[in-house]
Amino acid sequence: MDASKKTKIDLEEKILTAHQNNDGVKLAELYAKAAYTTSNINKACFFMVNAYTLALECNHPDTLSFFQFLQKYDREK
Amino acid sequence: MEKTARLNQVCLPVDEANGLPNEHYTCPSVFKEEKDILLFGKWSGLAVSAQIPNIGDAVPIFFQGTPLFIIRTKKNKVKVFQNTCRHRGMILIDRVKSIEGAIRCPYHSWCYSTEGSLISTPHVGGAGRNLHDAIDRSELGLTEIRSHVWMGVIWINLSGDAPKFEDNMKELIDRWSDFDRPLFHGGKESSFTIEVAANWKLAVENYCESYHLPWVHPGLNSYSKLEDHYHIEHKNKFSGQGTRVYQQLKDGNGNVFPDFVDLNAKWDTAAEYIAVYPNVLLGVHRDHAFVIILIPDGPEKTYEHIHLFYSKENTPKQLRLQNMKQWKLVFEEDVPVVEGMQRGRHAVNFDGGRFSPAMDNPTHCFHYWVANEVQNGRKQKN
């Protein structure tokens, strides 16, 4: 298995675990990481929507930067 | 006798009137009618603001089957919202919680600020797109319920068309202006709930008269005798009773609760107990106050949520416990008579009963209000 595929699987597992633990802060950070590590803009925005939503809920310090990411691609205002 | 005639009979002067007919205590359709007219159409008590002491605190409450939640917003305001998402009607707040950031719907994650604005609509325009031309967030905020905080109580007007609270309650606000100051909830030692197998109105009726005191509360009667009480009546708004011989609670060392400051000398020995129509029972004394919020759960079941308040924070815990114990005993002494009257409302030949023209005036005042409001509501509907 190549390294990038393994990283992706690791990230997915961590996201699932964070969902199970209802850990909004961790989830927001993991989704943001997923967004930042893909070159596909649509995929990145999908992950960033999730990151931003969870960040809003838990008042995460990176909420604004997530918002700006989506705003840059006309996905949020 | 047909419905209108029976309610006309209730509205006669106290020495001629009969009480409300049985159906007002037992019939599901009259219960629903009264819910719309008397509870949703007026300013009803929902909760106390002390239930949400910190910014972000949110508590879900069903009021007559309607899902609501109370919240202390980021701007430190107490607000009441319908507890449903503007998207699919999902319940938003399903337990007592603290909102750190936004209120996120657990279904599709639409997010609202604590002030009620819709602030994000994840994937609403397709995957990864939070925007869609058809979704105007400014029109899709949470449904706010008209509310007002007074005497520590969160009052709501679900119909949205009652007169302003301050105007509606002006006479009582003026009467008790001495107590219009911060009230400090006594915490866990100062709240409890009593479940009563009776219609909510019987709890009001029992509360606002002193006639039953010698028989039902013999302990109180040892110092607060019937002749020391006076009636309080304000047509269509509130009624109750006052006493001229209130004695402060003392612990074993003679300590008492601190008084509210700058009280009129009248309150040195007076205390007043008023039923604010429809569902809030209030009591004030020189050193503490209490509220009882009646939450009906069907025609023949009521929850009485009781909260005690003091003039300062950090009053002695043991004294607070002693005070709660004393009031709990009094309120529990009322349960058998309130439930007994409820059972009596199933007697087919009971005619609503006759009032004592000398002692039942506050109760008749309440019956008059119910009958009058129901008649008016029926006229408006037809």
Question: What can you see in these coordinates?
Answer:
The complex is a heterodimer of chains A (77) and B (382). With 77 residues, chain A is mainly alpha-helical. Chain A is built from 4 helices and no strands. Chain A has one domain (3-72). Chain A has helices at 3-20, 24-36, 41-58, 63-72. Chain A is flat, with a radius of gyration of 12 Å. The mean pLDDT of chain A is 94. Chain B is an alpha+beta fold. Chain B contains 10 helices and 18 strands. Chain B has helices at 3-10, 23-26, 28-40, 165-168, 170-175, 200-207, 213-216, 218-221, 317-344, 361-381; strands spanning 44-48, 57-63, 66-72, 78-82, 97-98, 103-104, 111-112, 118-120, 144-150, 153-157, 184-185, 191-196, 229-234, 238-243, 271-276, 280-284, 288-296, 302-310. The longest helix of chain B has 28 residues, at 317-344. The two termini of chain B are 20 Å apart. Chains A and B meet through helix 3 of A and strand 6 of B.
